[in-house]
Design brief:
The protein has twelve helices and 25 strands. The chain has 460 residues and is an alpha/beta fold. The chain has two domains: 191 residues, FAD/NAD(P)-binding domain (3-Layer(bba) Sandwich), CATH 3.50.50; 151 residues, 3-Layer(bba) Sandwich (FAD/NAD(P)-binding domain). A seven-stranded mixed beta sheet has the order 7-6-5-2-1-8-21, covered by helices on one side. Strands 10-17-11-12-13 form a five-stranded parallel beta sheet. Strand 14 and strand 15 form a beta hairpin. The radius of gyration is 23 Å and the shape is globular. The termini are far apart. It binds flavin-adenine dinucleotide. Flavin-adenine dinucleotide (FAD) binds next to helix 1, strand 2, helix 2, strand 5 and helix 7.
């Protein structure tokens, strides 16, 4: 039985949610409906928006405006206090969470219940030159920086007389053959193909796209027949695959592979998996391979009032006994909805329920009205799979305004050519009275701030 908040006796408890992505947002939404009156909900996130990550490849290729794939948290949460700050640690023995606020002040938040939903970061391995020269593909900053870098490289290449030099600016390497890497390379190869129409000298040289993965096949989440179809579709668009191959070194203008081959390219996109946010190590909670160990109810093992979900949590997967849930939005959303219910139940003296969800499947949008999907074991490809992908995103992107903007972006994309304005200067104004710098602002490379976990070898 579900009791709505209005019909319950007041309970004065403070619930602090760390992280406002899929897991944290849906927990807060559910608590707004179900938590007893008097319960205070505080959500702490390092930005004031949720990033709808599955549409990052589209944002990187300019198919949708980056602002349209983020959801302002204040607009969608009515009963929750949002605090923008960076969680740096916690002391569960004292029921406190440490946060560096955007003002720079460090604050301690006291809680009756803590929900940890801080997500994951790119999984970086110690490859020489990787953090200096590669760009990640997990945040809106990276997707925007990537798009700007590609346009800037087209501009640079157009002005170069040396063909070999020009070629390195027009060549791109994606490392990682999961859905993020495949969707990313598909979108950006399309973007480059359209952009070439406006760059005559670049058109003469042509572009090259490589996808490198250590595994012998792409996308283990889908059936091998669909993986082969994906390779064929992308192969016809000029994407070259280097499977069963690892990256040995990344240089400013080349990628060296374990096979001895050198790929001359100046853009390297790292999509080779994720690991739990390293902040997990500062929270004093039990960890298993970096993820917070949880019971099936999402309660952290050994703690009555600490809960975790999403990519940062090792929540037992009911569909694969002995294994944690995979790090997907599908799981984080369902976990958030149940965790809100569980917290409301516990506050009223009832028992929490275990998480039970069987993945709906996986899909990869390959652009140009084609996708592949494994829907509960059913193989779907081509236009039907693509239409399902689009409906899926439309259904899950929170907010009618965001959905409308997405439809508008998709419609504009059908009619008009790509927007090739390079907006690297956005948000980097010159000092007052100074001219704009001749060189656009440097690309932010958030990978550079990530160090591989100690003791990890390049083959991990
Ligand atoms: C390119 C790409 C495509 C994807 N496509 C799909 C897909 O098609 N289907 C699917 O199911 N999944 C997909 N995923 C995976 C999915 O996005 C994640 O599994 C999901 O976002 C996890 O939810 P979460 O709540 O655990 O973390 P997140 O949604 O990442 O939320 C974590 C939040 O915590 C904030 N945060 C992090 N550290 C701190 C800190 N120290 N202090 C304060 N705030 C902090 C972050 O800014 C973020 O808002 C994709 C991911 C990527 C990168």
């Amino acid at each position: 039985m579900v009791l709505r908040a209005g019909s319950l006796p007041p309970i004065s408890q403070h619930i602090v949610i760390a992280g406002g992505g899929f897991g944290g947002f849906y927990t807060a939404k559910q608590l707004e409906r179900l938590a007893p009156p008097g319960a205070r909900i505080t959500l702490i996130n390092d930005t004031n928006f949720l990033t709808y990550a599955p549409l990052l490849p589209a944002a990187a290729a300019g198919t949708v405006d980056p602002r349209h794939i983020v959801v302002p948290l204040r607009e969608r949460l009515k009963r929750t206090s949002l605090r923008v700050g960076y969680v740096t640690g916690g002391d569960p023995a004292r029921n406190t969470l440490r946060v560096e606020m955007i003002s720079g002040i460090v604050k301690e938040y006291r809680y009756d219940h803590l929900v940890v939903a801080l997500g994951s970061v790119s999984r970086v391995v110690p490859i020489p030159g990787l953090t200096e020269h590669a760009i990640g593909f997990k945040t809106i900053a990276e997707a925007t920086a990537l798009r700007n870098q590609i346009v800037r490289h087209f501009e640079l290449a157009e002005g170069l007389d040396d063909v070999d030099q020009r070629r390195t600016y027009l060549s791109f390497v994606f490392v990682g053959g999961g859905y993020a890497g495949l969707e990313g390379i598909a979108e950006l190869a399309d973007f480059a193909r359209d952009a070439l129409k406006r760059y005559p000298r670049c058109r003469e040289t042509g572009t090259r796209f490589w996808l490198v993965d250590a595994a012998p096949r792409i996308m283990p989440e889908i059936q091998s027949e669909l993986a082969e179809f994906t390779e064929q579709v992308l192969g016809r668009r000029g994407v070259e695959f280097r499977l069963g191959t690892t990256v040995a070194e990344v240089r400013d203008d080349a990628v060296l592979l374990s096979s001895g081959e050198t790929l001359a390219a100046r853009t390297v996109v790292w999509t080779a998996g994720v690991r739990a946010s390293p902040v997990a190590e500062q929270l004093g909670l039990p960890l298993e391979r970096g993820r917070i160990v949880c019971e099936p109810s999402m309660r952290v093992s050994g703690y009555e009032n600490v809960w975790a979900l999403g990519d940062i949590a090792a929540v037992p997967d009911p569909a694969r006994p002995g294994q944690p849930c995979p790090p997907t939005a599908q799981h984080a959303i369902r976990q958030g909805k149940l965790l809100g219910r569980n917290l409301a139940a516990v506050m009223q003296g009832r028992q929490p329920r275990p998480f039970s969800f069987k993945t709906l499947g996986a899909f990869a949008d390959l652009g140009r009205h084609t996708a592949v999907a494994n829907l509960m074991g059913l193989r779907v490809k081509g236009f039907l799979a693509w239409a399902i992908c689009r409906f899926y995103h439309l259904a899950w992107l929170p907010g009618a305004d965001r959905k409308s903007r997405l439809i508008a972006d998709w419609s504009v994309e059908l009619i008009f050519p790509r927007d090739l304005a390079e907006m690297g200067q956005l948000g980097h104004p010159p000092a007052l009275g100074e001219p704009l710098p001749a060189r656009p602002a440097q690309v932010d490379r958030p990978l550079a701030s990530l160090q591989p976990p100690a003791g990890q070898s390049p083959t991990d």
